[in-house]
Specification:
With 136 residues, the protein is mainly α. Helix content is 66%, strand content 0%. The protein has helices at residues 2-17, 23-36, 51-73, 86-109, 113-116, 124-132.
């Protein structure tokens, strides 16, 4: 007889404790606000879903990385400081690692031959992804 009263109470407790539909976005926004105090960016990645998007991401990432490294390399020794060298390298690493992580998820997930050989995971792009993950 006791279970007849405890089951509805447990069900009510579960329903009360379930998150509301907007709470995940609110939790992310609150976490982003806390992270911003420490100059940290927290975001949900947007994954590339087409070969064209993968190619565009790879091209954009390579160009941005080369531009950042060129700007560091052009500094005069008297201009070098922590922010324009170490922090700039960390920013480049964040950009490259984010793109690398997203692209690396596609390779094991794209088991179908047409998608793998469609140009995004074959040829030079496969070599770029492989180079990103080669341990030295």
């Amino acid at each position: 007889m006791f279970w007849k009263h405890s089951v509805p109470a447990a069900l009510l407790a579960v329903l009360v404790l379930l998150p509301t539909p907007g709470s995940a976005a609110d939790a992310l926004a609150a976490f982003q606000a806390r992270a911003a105090r420490f100059h940290t960016v927290v975001s949900i990645p947007e994954f590339e879903t087409t070969p064209e998007a993968v190619k565009a991401t790879a091209d954009k990432t390579i160009a941005a990385g080369n531009a950042a490294l060129d700007s560091i390399g052009q500094l005069h020794p008297s201009e070098v400081n922590f922010h324009n060298t170490i922090r700039a390298l960390d920013d480049v690493n964040y950009l490259l690692q984010g793109a690398s992580d997203r692209l690396s998820l596609m390779q094991p997930c794209a088991r179908l031959r047409p998608r793998r050989s469609s140009g995004c995971l074959s040829g030079p792009w496969a070599r770029i992804i492989a180079r990103m993950f080669t341990r030295r």
